[in-house]
Amino acid sequence: MTKLYTLLSSATLLAPMCADAQETVSEKTPNVIYILADDLGIGDLGCYGQREIKTPNIDGMAQHGMKFMQHYSGSTVSAPSRCSLLTGKHMGHAAIRGNAKVNGSDGLPYETPLPEGEVTVADIFKSKNYATACIGKWGMGGPGTEGMPDKHGFDYFYGYLGQGFAHSYYPDFLHENNQKIHLEGKVYSHDLILEKALSFIDRHADSPFFLYFSPTLPHADLDIVQEALAEYEGDFCETPFAGKTGGYKAQSSPRAAYAAMVTYLDKSVGLILDKLKELGLYENTMVVFTSDNGVHAEGGHDPYYFDSNGPFRGQKRDLYEGGVRTPFVVQWPAMIPQGVVSNHISAFWDFLPTIGDLLQVENPAGIDGISYLPTLTGRGEQQQHGCIYYEFFEFGGKQSLLTPDGWKLIRLEVSDPSKTYEELYNIYTDPAETTNVLKQHPEIAERLRRMMQTQRTVNDRFHF
Q1: pTM for the full model?
Q2: Domain-located, residue 80
């Protein structure tokens, strides 16, 4: 029996006792847990319309909290998305705008280091004496670089420093702070990561904490423990994945494996919520659930089978809605009313100013985010974004800009001006972005084109 299933058995025994032991919410500031799934599509959750994959715990968060219908990731791939989340800057100003590799002191490839001096949301928590941890995937610098988690406000780190290593769920090693933990490919990494997250909550139950929990599920490899796979095996018509493509392992039941990975993630969310109840922290803990970008189509996963991107066009690495619009559910029983659905337009770069607003800390200069705390609590006036801007440096270079009235300009092949072309959509009348209306509305395209020029600064490493 895997560690997660052992934990589930224990949680079942504890649940009745925990419900009776709930404490009255104190006046102290809340704990915050931010759960960032990896390559999970907005359509993969029951609360956003999924019918084949079971996600009762995340669906329960939506029922007991607030579900956002128009929330945007930091980027359409992992490292820049995480940079945006932690620094409050969109892709026109973020220090990390792509998945470019830089070797660590061990000679292995990691991602571009987050520069020294970048203020992160963890730094803001530290200024108010919160214990802080990143447990899961980092992706913003390896050993010996300025991008290590402990240089950016995190007291504790456990997991994958580099994203390439996170493609295997049975890795040769993980990192605990600056120490390499050798595993020799014998342990399912998610179970270790979850165990460390629950342990962190246990250790800091008597003081405020911020847990940035970033598991790698359901990113490829499509690899899951047998107990979880058994729940779905045989349920779907399968086309085996032979492996090798993209370096991913073979999988005879890719649909069952993907569904099982999503449900395994959901059960982990349930265990975190159970731990909060056990410790009397449930009412006064803000728990956020989202995904770092749109769904992937790697390792044998067919995103169209489960309608993983919902009603939207595109997936990971696209700037269409399916590549950047993500599930976003926030639960905080002491402050957020139950079952609220919000159409407020929000993005990853809003998390830092939201926490600044919550903790009454002045925001660092140069950020792009706006606090969504008024939407969460129903208190105060909610500001609105003037636009949502992206740039992306793979597949010839891409840019997009979305305005509050639904107009969205996408520029493709930006790296070569002789090949650059544009598409214009209104996502409120055409949410699937099926009909390019650039020729019908040249004046709108020109307005958005001018806005794009104001949304970016030059980045020496990431440029067209």
Answers
A1: 0.95
A2: yes
